[in-house]
Amino acid sequence: MKQIDISKPVLVTGANGYVASWLVQKLLDEGHTVHAAVRNPDNKEKVGHLIQAAEKAKGNIKFFKTDLLEEGAYQEAMQGCELVYHTASPFVTDVKDPQRDLVDPAVKGTANVLETANQVSSVKRIVVTSSVVATYTDASDLANTPKGMIDEEVWNTTASLDYQPYSLSKTLAEKKAWEIANAQSQWDLVTINPAFVMGPAQNAKATTSESITILKQMGDGTFKMGAPKMGVGVIDVRDLAVAHYKAGYTPEAKGRYITSAHNTNFLEMGLTLQDKFGAQYPLPKKALPKWLLMIVGPFTNKLLTRRFIKNNVNIEWKADNSKIVNELGMSFRPLKETMEDSFQVLVDNKIV
């Protein structure tokens, strides 16, 4: 159990990311001093929204230029911090070299941050943003779990460099984090394992998150003929920020936390937008048949392989979120609110 001094600065890596931006906002609103580690503090397009957030909040922000793969790059930013949030990690699925573009940055970046903490005596707790994909690769994997759903005890054993390398990168990075944590006693580790993150982007034009891509496809007619009933879990980015905050400042927080609000699928997600946006946008209204997806999927998106479709479409996705609800007192906003607020940002920014 680690009691974190709220008067001490807090380090957030990848501070201008989609998830981290809301965490930084929460920390600032609560009056904390945030050490924001970013690649380029001078790029106003990427960090301007954080500067504006700090101007309106009780807390303060200080930027540090860092590189995930450069050893010791976080040393200065970590000084005086008792709490470190490591959120920086690539979330891209279309890569040329999975080892170089996904696995290495995720694993080496995590090791770099955590090993730096071993040299900075003020650090008491590190909260790492992992993912539910560190517990499974395909929805079909859930059938082989003890409860028929994912929980904190389950690890991903099916991802590889050739199949779902993003899932592999998150699994190996989290395992690395636990390995480093278990080899020392100065700080404790908590991991947050979010499901598919939706919700309004603070900096929509500069956000590269996969969730923006899916939303765009819902509005641009890609799913006009129907959306696949592809099982996923969803968490609102704003609720995810609260989950991170509680994981940092709740002394009893420990281990992994599956952070998923809704067991759902792409069709159900699209249908929640009908009331508000259905008249103006070609949103999905029905399920795309699996057999049709098997034929056209591989041509529309190279990630939609027949193996992927077979293992994820029309298969129910379920997660047990009772640990985070019971231990951290989390509650979640409705799926409809999350989806409408997300889509509205794309409309406002003329992205759809």
UniProtKB/TrEMBL annotation:
SUPFAM superfamilies in alphabetical order: NAD(P)-binding Rossmann-fold domains (SSF51735)
Keyword Oxidoreductase part of the UniProt annotation: yes
Key words, A-Z: Oxidoreductase
Stored InterPro entries: Epimerase_deHydtase, NAD(P)-bd_dom_sf, NAD(P)_dehydrat-like
GO molecular function, one term: oxidoreductase activity, acting on the CH-OH group of donors, NAD or NADP as acceptor
Domain NAD-dependent epimerase/dehydratase: 10-252
UniProt name for this protein: Diaminohydroxyphosphoribosylaminopyrimidine deaminase
Lineage of the organism: Bacteria, Pseudomonadati, Bacteroidota, Cytophagia, Cytophagales
